[in-house]
Specification:
Distance between the termini: 67 Å
Low-confidence stretches: 1-12, 671-675
Number of strands: 21
Protein name: Mitochondrial Rho GTPase
Radius of gyration: 37 Å
Enzyme class: hydrolase
Strand order of the largest sheet: 2-3-1-4-5-6
GO molecular function, one term: GTPase activity
Mean pLDDT: 89
Structural class: alpha/beta
Largest sheet: 6 strands, mixed
Number of helices: 24
Membrane topology: Single-pass type IV membrane protein
InterPro entries: EF-hand-dom_pair, EF_Hand_1_Ca_BS, EF_hand_assoc_1, EF_hand_assoc_2, EF_hand_dom, Miro, Miro-EF-hand_domain, MIRO_dom
Helix content: 40-55%
Length: 675
């Protein structure tokens, strides 16, 4: 939504913009001016200027600006602009002109969809006083239209001339913005929508202080005070529980109001048109109109350099270990699909149901997620989308300051200078030509069996797992497969390699063409790193080692490794399960970012040039030093020539100064030693 709706997402009061549209002569302008002035006008201009309705006209006291529009062809561009900036749209038809009602479904509502105007729509029948008494009822007329166009929030008939239901028109429009039905309730199924249920479940759990699965009388009262600033009387609590129990026996138990009963109450409020009750509850707990936590409940913007990454802190990891244990109901050390769904049942949706997280982590033979796989998924989400990661931590119960859940790592350039990285999560870019074995490498990393046949990778994909360290600790490695066709686009970004801790180049060791292409990519990536300052350690992987290598493979690999100053290709066979400790070697290279960095010929030439330039600058510095010292010596000697015998005698009585010529001699020797 535009204007008021977007601001109301953050629970702030602002002006709501209502645009009135419809065919010519349907009573748009008369509706607006009569509602604002409380008097029917004798003369109405074709299009009114923006009209502000009094704040005290509605209970919420939120200002409303009403925008009149023209339906003429010459004003269609302006009309489209106004509709696109609306928080709600009032579509009018004339009760005495059935053709204008037909135009709603044949033109106006399809036009809103074409313009992608996704705001509540209020359909208003004007000139009710002129309607034929034999006409069909509003419900009969509008029911099929509302079935087809779900964006219609409500329908109402009015008369500006007779002052019938004018305030209600704009009250319903304002209410549709402040308390929209669509996010909460499925009109067709007559049930709460899933995201609404999930939010209310989280609120219920937050209010269930003793964790007994029910809200006691005291907890219900605390909830009432928090949301509505007024306590419930004991008789009112009894009345609420009786209403629920009469309709739903499982809604109340000996401990109080159950989650089922809590949800039933909100469905009842909505069915009775009291949407403001449920919206008040949601907003008190920080939800916006999309039923997600508003920005002020989440992390503030994160300031970091391109070569810094985001990781979970030890506090957040320990919290997740506790959550894992809590939801591992059967105690088998892994989360099945139902347990994982239950874990995320208080979030808007399971954040791992789609790419890039779906199937990114290792699962056991029963397709269940182990603790390592669970923590790996969180590490991946935190690296790629830290704001969303922390948001989901909050949904599942993280109660500390959101900022305490993450840390920003050191710049990789600093790590390179220190010759060691302090990161716990490393990202490896996997490059290589088509059919080289990149996907098989990722699949093997997360325990998937080798599959014969070739399926091209069209989009980037990720695989994440923990790697055991020699000291007994565990660190997380993320493999990011870059399709060959996507490399050119990737490198258009100057900071493309900033997030890369190590790059791996995979080739089919049985095909010379695959080797040639892999080395071309290696040079391309190395050159990009040299030109941008984001040099990365690189390893070459000789995949498909179960095949015979092409004839000159050993000579070629030796030459490239020596020329570029990196390790010789590491042979592996995913088919035979022979990985040659490839993932441990990737991790070791990433932890030591000053090693395994390839040098291209251009890079070597550039370095040689800089050495010569630095040496030349040193020589120039020496020349400058000679000139300065010489000038100093000249000034001292000149001063000595002007001294009188009396002054010289006085100076000899003072501490003797070093000879300027000796200073000059020592300085020259020191500089040339450093050169």
């Amino acid at each position: 939504m535009a204007g008021g709706a977007s601001a109301l997402n953050s629970n702030s009061t602002t002006t709501i913009r209502i645009v009135v549209a419809g065919d010519r002569g349907t009573g748009k302008s008369s509706l607006i001016v009569t509602a604002a002035a409380e008097a029917f006008p004798a003369n109405v201009p074709p299009v009114l200027p923006p009209t502000r309705l009094p704040e005290d006209m509605f209970p919420d006291r939120v200002p409303v600006n009403v925008i009149d529009t023209s339906a003429s062809m010459e004003n269609r561009g302006r009309l489209a602009e106004e509709l696109k900036s609306a928080d709600a749209v009032v579509l009018t038809y004339a009760c005495d002109k059935p053709s204008t009602l037909d135009r709603l479904s044949t033109f106006w509502l399809p036009e809103l969809r074409r313009l992608e105007v996704k705001v509540p729509v209020i359909v208003v029948g004007c000139k009710l006083d002129l309607r034929d008494e034999q006409a069909v009822s509003l419900e009969q007329v509008m029911s099929p239209i509302m079935q087809q166009f779900r964006e219609i929030e409500t329908c109402i008939e009015c008369s500006a001339f007779k002052h019938i239901q004018l305030p209600e028109v704009f009250y319903y429009a304002q209410k549709a913005v402040l308390h929209p039905t669509a996010p909460l309730f499925d009109q067709e199924a007559q049930t709460l929508k899933p995201r609404c249920v999930r939010a209310l479940k989280r609120i219920f759990i937050l209010c269930d202080n003793d964790r007994d699965g029910a809200l006691s009388d005291a907890e219900l009262n605390d909830f009432q005070v928090k949301c509505f600033n007024a306590p419930l009387q004991p008789s009112e609590i009894v009345g609420v529980k009786r209403v629920v129990q009469d309709k739903l026996s499982e809604g109340v138990n000996e401990n109080g109001l159950t989650l089922t009963g809590f949800l039933f109450l909100h469905a009842l409020f909505i069915e009775k048109g009291r949407l403001e009750t449920t919206w008040t509850v949601l907003r008190k707990f920080g939800y916006n109109n999309d039923i997600r936590l508003s920005d002020d409940q989440l992390l503030p913007p994160i300031t970091r350099s391109p070569d810094q990454s985001i990781e979970l802190t030890s506090e957040a990891v320990e919290f997740l270990r506790g959550v894992f244990s809590l939801f591992d109901i059967d105690g088998d050390g892994a989360l099945n699909e139902l347990e994982l769904e239950d874990l995320f049942s208080t979030a808007p949706e399971n954040p791992w149901s789609e790419a890039p997280y779906a199937n990114a982590a290792e699962k056991n033979a029963l397709e269940r997620l182990s603790l390592d796989g669970f923590l790996s998924q969180w590490a991946l989400m935190t690296l790629l989308d830290p704001i969303r990661s922390v948001e989901n931590l909050i949904y599942i119960g993280y109660a500390d300051d959101p900022s305490s859940a993450i840390r920003v790592t050191r710049k990789r350039r600093v790590d390179r200078n220190k010759k060691h990285s302090d990161r716990n999560v490393f990202q490896c870019f996997v490059f290589g030509p088509k059919e080289s074995g990149k996907s098989s490498l990722l699949n093997s990393f997360v325990g998937r069996p080798f599959v014969e046949g070739y399926t091209p990778t069209i989009e980037e994909r990720y695989a994440v797992n923990v790697v055991d360290q020699p000291d007994g600790t565990k660190k997380t490695l993320i493999l990011r497969e870059i399709p060959e066709d996507a490399i050119e686009k990737l490198l258009l970004n100057k900071d493309a390699l900033a997030a890369c801790d190590i790059a791996v180049f995979v080739h089919d060791s049985s095909k010379e063409s695959s080797w040639i292409r892999a080395t071309e990519l290696l040079v391309e990536i190395a050159s990009h790193g040299e030109s941008t300052g984001y040099e990365v350690p690189c390893l070459i992987v000789a995949a498909k080692d179960d095949f015979d290598p092409y004839p000159t493979a050993i000579q070629d690999s030796t030459r490239v490794s020596q020329d570029m100053g990196i390790e010789a290709p590491i042979p592996i066979s995913t088919k035979l399960g022979d990985f040659n400790n490839i993932f441990g070697r990737i991790m070791r290279a990433a932890e030591h970012p000053h090693l395994s960095i390839p040098e291209t010929e251009a890079g070597k030439t550039r370095k040689h040039y800089h050495r010569l330039l630095n040496r030349s600058l040193m020589v120039v510095s020496v020349g400058a030093a000679v000139a300065v010292v010489g000038l100093a010596a000249y000034r001292v000697n000149s001063k000595d020539l002007l001294d009188t015998p009396e002054l010289q005698k006085t100076r000899r009585c003072k501490l003797s100064k070093p000879d300027p010529i000796d200073l000059f001699h020592n300085l020259i020797i020191s500089i040339w030693i450093h050169i």
